[in-house]
Amino acid sequence: MRAHYAFSVIALSGLILAGCSTLPGDDGVAATTGEWLTRSGEAIGAQSRRLAEWFGRDEASDDEAMRPELLEERQTLLDQPYIDPLTRYLETHAEDPRYADVLTDLSHERDRRCAAIANKYAERPASRENLALYRRGYLYSCPAEVNAFYARVRKEEVRRPVARPQPESAPEPETDDAPLAEHDEQVEEVLDRRKSNDCYLLFTIRNLGEAKEVCRTPAEQGDARAQRHMGSMAELEGQLEEAMRWYRRAADNGDAQARERLEAVAASSRDAGDEDAR
């Protein structure tokens, strides 16, 4: 455990040093991911118990022993002013159920900080210069907000009248006047990564209702872990054919855990068929 803690402290220091996105002084409003992660209640509690049985683990076994260390890590991240360390931590521990409470809190805080940055940029002109600054500082952690500003800049440029060159005027300095594309490929790539990570987080904190909805898109796009999670949720619901379909897709994409579950579910289905035939 001490070795784990020492590693966590070193890793956490690296995350903070690697962060580059700072938080302004004004408060923001929590964005969608944090809202997803806090929809719990009795249904999620029931799902939590079912998943505890599913994974064959005692929920209290390691959690209580780790809790002081996790709370210290959580507080260290909340006390530092950057956004990127929160995102790196969330991605690093997205599939570890022992971190569920910490992941929920940190996701809330990341979204609050991204919303605060979005409010700050909402007061700035919709220019390419500001878009470049926004992308450089916050694309990794706040892709949805950067994408919204990108759309705002593009809309502003479309509305802007085209200047007609005057023959007698001096030549203008060369600039990049090509119109912005409808979608920014780099932003879209980061958004896809965020959707996948939201899937992992929601499954980890056992919010299966939201996870099933959020995981579907990355699963359909070929994300093996999202496909495995879709298979797990289908299996928990007793939809074994659906579960095997997702497990098979994940296994074909190289997911070893999905291959194990596929074999187990297939064997269970065969055994059930043999029982029915007797």
Automatic annotation (TrEMBL):
Write the signal peptide boundaries: 1-18
- Region Disordered: which residues? 158-181
Q: Which UniProt keywords apply?
A: Signal
**TM spans (from-to):** none
* InterPro entries the UniProt entry points to: TPR-like_helical_dom_sf (IPR011990)
Q: Is Transmembrane helix given among the entry's keywords?
A: no
Q: Does the keyword Methyltransferase apply?
A: no
Q: Which domain of life is it from?
A: Bacteria
Protein name per its UniProtKB record:
Sel1 repeat family protein
Origin species, per record, is: Halomonas icarae
